[in-house]
Amino acid sequence: MKIQQISEVLLGRTPSILGHEQFMKFAVLLPLVEVNNEVHILFEVRALTLRRQPGEICFPGGRIEKGEDPGKAAARETSEELGIKESEITDMIPLDFMVSAFGTIIYPFVGTIKNPGAIKPNEAEVGEVFTVPLAFFTKNQPATYKINFQVEPEDGFPFDLIIGGENYNWQTRSMNEYFYRTNGKVIWGLTARVLTHFLELMEQENIRG
């Protein structure tokens, strides 16, 4: 093989995230609704019967099916969980996607639910829904705590193949975890991370709710 052949093979290829084929991909929607002429953000409480994260607060969303567009997945999951037609979800706009250290890619969107009165939550997935005025979040900062990640090589790791061996200076990292408290409810984790990103965008444009 010649260098020219290699260049021809790679020419025009669109770069992506290294190893993305092995990542699980999810899409979520940050839903905006109007309540008494005021902008609110809608949240779900996950059903207590769910195996993963029962009772936690989240945005509608779920796994992206093979070949499915992330925006389509977010609308489909929202429709299924809230019992509304996809046509009731408008003005969907992508936010920054997230790549986690745990093998997942999250594609968040913000969109408007035109008729929140039509919502009939899927009881198998959703315990309840509630809304919080956007103005509450623009006036109340979250509590922020750090999570530190530690490198722990598996048994049999070949320390003899790396300089420094068992004393190798691994780079560790930390991540901010955000907590919002409102009316006895705690919003944290991925949901708070997406929410914080959205609020930072609003702040940049001086939008206060």
Structure, briefly:
The chain has four helices and eleven strands.
What does this protein structure show overall?
- The chain has 209 residues and is of the alpha+beta class.
- It has helices at residues 3-10, 70-82, 134-139, 189-204, and strands at 24-35, 38-46, 57-58, 61-63, 89-94, 98-99, 104-113, 126-133, 143-149, 173-182, 185-187.
- The chain contains four helices and eleven strands, in the order αββββαββββαβββα.
- Strands 1, 2, 3, 4, 5, 6, 7 and 8 form an eight-stranded mixed β-sheet that branches. A three-stranded antiparallel β-sheet has the order 9-10-11.
- A hairpin with a 2-residue loop joins β10 (173-182) and β11 (185-187).
- The radius of gyration is 21 Å and the shape is globular.
- It starts with a helix and ends in a 5-residue tail after the last helix.
The portion of residues forming beta strands comes to 25-35%
Structural category: alpha+beta
Outline the low-pLDDT stretches.
none
The counted number of beta strands is: 11
* Overall radius of gyration: 21 Å
Subunit arrangement of the protein: single chain
Distance between the termini: 60 Å
Arithmetic mean pLDDT: 93
Q: Given the structure, what is the number of helices? A: 4
H/E element string?
HEEEEHEEEEHEEEH
- The residue fraction in helices comes out at 10-25%
Biggest beta-sheet profile: 8 strands, mixed
Shape by Cα distribution: globular
